[in-house]
TrEMBL record, chain A:
InterPro entries: Ester_Hydrolysis_Enzymes, NonGDSL, SGNH_hydro_sf. Residues 1-27 form the signal peptide. It comes from Methylobacterium terricola. Gene3D superfamilies: SGNH hydrolase. Keywords: Hydrolase, Signal. Pfam families: NonGDSL. This is SGNH/GDSL hydrolase family protein. One of its GO terms (molecular function) is phosphatidylcholine lysophospholipase activity. It comes from the Bacteria. The keyword Hydrolase applies.
UniProtKB/TrEMBL annotation, chain B:
The chain crosses the membrane at residues 81-103, 137-157, 164-186, 192-210, 226-245, 265-287, 307-326, 332-352. It comes from the Bacteria. Keywords: Membrane, Transmembrane, Transmembrane helix. This is OpgC domain-containing protein. PANTHER family: BLL4819 PROTEIN.
Amino acid sequence: MALSLPPALLGGVSLAMLACLGFAVQAQSTTPTPPVQAQPQPALAEIPALQATAPSPDAPDPSLSPECRVPGSKLYTLAKLKAVKKALLEHRAVQVLTIGSNSGGIGTAATYPVRLEDALTRSLPDIEVTVESRGVSGEIAFGAAERLRNQVAEIEPDLVVWQVGGNDALARVDIEDFSQSLAETVAWIKSHGIDVVLVDPQYTASLAKDDYYRQFVQAIQKVAEREQVPLVQRYEAMRYLATRAISALKGDTAQAGAGFRLADLGYRCMAEHVTRAITVSLLQPDIAGPMVPPAAH
Amino acid sequence: MREPNAVDFWRGIALITIFINHIPGNVFQNYTYSQYGISDAAELFVFLAGWSIGIATRGRDGVPEPALRTVLRLLSRMVEVYRAQLVITAIALAMLAGAALYLDNPLLVEWHNAGPIFSDPIQATVGWVTLLHQLGFFNILPLYVVLLGLAPAFVLLSRLHLGLAIGISVLVYAVSLVFEINIPSWPVEGHWFFNPLCWQLLLVLGFAAHEWRRSSERFLAWRRRLMPLGVVIVIVGAVLSWFNLRPDPLAVPEPRLLFIFDKSYLSPARLVHFLGVMLAFQAVFGLVQPRAGWLTRQLAGLGRNSLAVFSVGSVASLGAQLIRFWTGGGFATDVFVVGCGLASLSFTAWFVEWRSRSPRPSSAA
């Protein structure tokens, strides 16, 4: 009897915990943040529409909402987004294709693609951004990469934001096979003058010590680096948020469902995190002098 | 219970192939024929479904049964398949959720497109019950439901003229390919994994092949004569698939679906390859049956009870995936899960037949 809590009480407890957690994260993250007054960068001057400044990499990024606040170094690795930049310079609408789950978190009013469109539109005023989304069933090492090519060809976007690896990691496909398939697909998308942003799989405590899973996440980082595409480090970001949550709850994290709440938070934050990675990538200076846009087909 | 025949035999092979291919990454996957061609077991399954409709809608004497009975027969089969789809989807969702709770791993409820059912249940419940939201690997039966819904029209048209049924089927296929028409998925944006408007052609071709085989000497003669062409197509398919050669979907001319290798729309290359496979392997059953009686009986047993075997296979392959994830996989795990799965398919076939003949004391002789 003692264990059977009424659902209303349970709901109240979890709500209160979430509120505590949010507050604690806010309290912690607001204190150490130095006021970031980034210098206008050369790239920014090129793109008047872009409403963003490059943050300091190691402090929690103050432009993110409190519950999602993660330092840039744990959130993304950057690379140039030539196709999107070209569209911005030409004041042309930007079409984005998101691949993977469209969850925006449990009980949220908007799905992830809607939130992403919203967040990108806010960061890129004057530019029309449309986001289409597609799920992928199956593993990219076994056929899903082919379907993804066909989806990209169907929509012909400027940018593909790809939550990659979830299905393959759960199916425990060979990491080499997966990496090769991923690299080939990314190279193919780029070869058609379309930008790619990769989003690696989620962190969850029960997989923190799973060697295969960690190597899998690292394999995606390597591909992103080699193929020169921005990567949203969802795994790292969620691990960071999880440590925050642990300290906020003062060690009382063993309760059932902590992992599920973190996963939910991961989805709530994804649109912001992806938008941040895109806008900061757009600030990347062009080293090779004046930008020569690739010939888009 | 009917004697082993070529249709049940091949359907048994398709069922085993689908089961193994639905456990991605397992070692046996490399030995299924899907890895060595452009088309796979799904084509075989749908083609044979059409063939079986040809058998089912004629009496033992070969005379077509009354139109109303055909319509009711096909619609009642459609209801049966729909019911099977709901049951296996519900079981799959519970398996994913149960595994997520047991392993404390929220990633598992996201697997195979299950995410929206847990994060957005109001829309997604409507979605999966209306077949507009399909779990990964649980997308063949929704296709089959729609095909059985369309089948009465094609069967009745064929009684006017078989050419008319085929003509309309080809027209629907071509229009869907050129204009990229497919049933949308919902609540997640996108389309059905198997486009019924395209795949209906294979069902109609399977049905037509059965009709021709009954009545046309010329069909049988040409089927034999074209066998070498089938072998060539199979070899070309194997080479393309081995070296991973396929058209670039962003480089082909419009309408691009005519040129690429696309499973959803059953693009022409897949269709041609599948017909080649049929031509090349037409004689296999006749060769295998006298030499491997036990194997033939087992495979035909699976094929005779294909809906039950397919349903158990779908659930078993998800179970196998969860076990592979939990244990980390490896050769021993693969042998275990595939072995148990095949045994459960075999048991299902036996059990369904036992149940249908056994607990009926009133009809016992």
